Amino acid sequence: MSQEGYVRIQKLYRKKFLQHEKQVEDRLERAVMKFAGKVKEEITDRTKDDGTLDKRLAKELKDEIGRLCGWYSEEEKEILRSGIKEAARLGMRGQDAAAKKHMGELIEKYKEDKEVVGLFRKALADPNPMLLSATYGEGLPDDIADTIWDNRWQDGKKLSDRIWKHENNMRQNLDGMIEKGINEEKSAADLSRAVDDYLIKPGPTWRTDILPAKTDRATVKYNALRLARTETNHAYQHAQKMSAKNSELVKGVKWNLSMSHPIDWPPSAAYEGYPEICDYRAEEDHHGLGPGVYKADGYIPWDHPNGLCYLTDVLLKDKELMRLLKDKY
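Predicted structure:
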């Protein structure tokens, strides 16, 4: 039997996931905009009649902006945590819906064979790993969120480490920008523009010479959205991997390139004879199961930060599944 119905549901839930991911990004963007607005309000409130900052209020301004950095960091954590949890829930529901759809199609196809139908019904009704909700319960999204929160990237840092680093950099950079603005008698308007450039504006263009001391070539907004895309994608795919590893239906997981995957890469991006690591993952026959297919019960890599690749399951053929279920039941 074709697995088109199964894959169609996986793609449907991926569409739902991408919509959810966009909602998380929108929430983070609003939080950054609100943060920038509050910082600029504090600057305006301490502006002298000539438009420059009041040096006597520098410490007070720094303290207040430090408090705002803490507020924004907590907002970011809450948005990311809830976004990761919902991504995991969508992954779980998508996998369960696909499994139920496929089993229903098998039961319909073999409805004249009572023995085979009985096997399929047992497999579907048994509280076994075929359905994540039956195996792990509705608390699974929280468990996956914990896993994602504690997972260390290749550089050894966890998500909480990155949020702390971003907050610490913000504090230092905004402090330094205030110092420069005051010492060089810059206008409050110039400092506010610099705040926008640092927190919100895309790209390296700066409209003033009030620059942050520590930059990682990206705005605060960009870093927040990058974390959101990376970690929600990891949560969604983690649910898929758990399902594939435990399901009798699945023999492999295929790595797919997104439609927006670049074609041209510099030589420095080459990996194992392919233009880039994602091309290797999607095109290499890793285990003799076909291009891009990993063993369902083996290691399936995490996508890289900001990655848009996606996973689909490769199912056992009907006869393979029947043999497996006969051995089990």
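Summary: The chain is about 60% helix and 5% strand.
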